[in-house]
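Bump. Still looking for Mannitol-1-phosphate 5-dehydrogenase structure tokens.
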Amino acid sequence: MNVLHIGAGNIGRGFIGRSILQSGFTLTFTDINKNIIDALNYYKKYQIKLVGCNYQEIININNFHAINLNNSNISKIISNANLITTSVGASSLDNIAIILSQGIMLKIKLKSKIPLNIIACENKTQATSYLKEIIFEKISIKYHEYLNEYVGFVDCSIDTIVPSTSSYKKNILSLIAEDFQEWIVDKKQFKGIIPKIINMKISDNLKSFIDRKILTLNTGHVITAYLGWIKKYKTIYESIQDSDIKNIVKGAMKESGLTLIKKYKFNKNSHFSYIDKILVRFQNPFLSDKIERIARNPLQKLRQDERLIKPFLLAKKYNFLYHNLTKGIAGALYYRNKNDLESMQIGNLIRNFGIKKTLNQVSNLQIDSPEINLIASEYISIDNFYSKKLYI
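Sorry for the wait, here they are.
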């Protein structure tokens, strides 16, 4: 089976690509980062150090191919692929859709009847369905019957931590990865035979797993990042050592967790145990993940259907507490990093229009609603306490 993985960063090399190669498939990495692609072609191998709290293992990765995403041959590789996976970041899916559309059109012109499945392994709810919508818009409607028959768009939930500062050797390819790795896919969306891939689990109830991950792990992760940034911490590990931050993060995950328990009838003890495991993962000293990486793109994270606002609104809907979630949202609004364009855009909006109109625009909350008033009040409290300390 020919597999193309788009995005040769840490998740791509440390989890998805590794799983595909260990399953015995032919894998090609592609990326717009010339340095990574050149390094993959030069070294032709790299190492992953898998780490847990009481566990370490070195894994050697080789027998892969690599090509720049801008290479003229990429459409041919797409047309010949049986499976395409991505780990490019949700904000890059629109650009990826253009390239995939061109490759799929070549596949159509070649009259290929070999099924192609696409899985977007991104921190975005139903990322592949989103990618599908864009691709269908870019390909003429007369070919949609072909797409529906031969191209599967498979949503997934992916959960692992591969820090950005994870290289432990002198080349840029070696990395440290968490030993906890979860990849769950929707079996109903595949075309043809479902490939057997190590670490990939099949589910017919994917939505609950997606929400469990996004509204628990990702919710806790970004709140740890935003509150840690305010206190000038550099890593998630440093931030979660702060007892005040840890209590807010755990409280926010429990507030969100109660909504998931209500919505999906999760077992309460099992879900709260899942939250405790996440906190242990954040405290792994080997995973010194940069706050800057987790906090990036706050505009996306503050959307109404995302990891901060969605559990907040669900908690309100079900009449649960949301005090800690409110603190996390306010922390995201307060995040200012001159290296992060979205954070600076939020700052400009707040300066020009105020916190309430900004929330209305960014999160689609109604002006002067109880929700906006609560978040605005918490934001003002943070601003009063940390006034004049926005930039580092």
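The chain has two domains: 2-204, 208-385.

Edit: fixed formatting.
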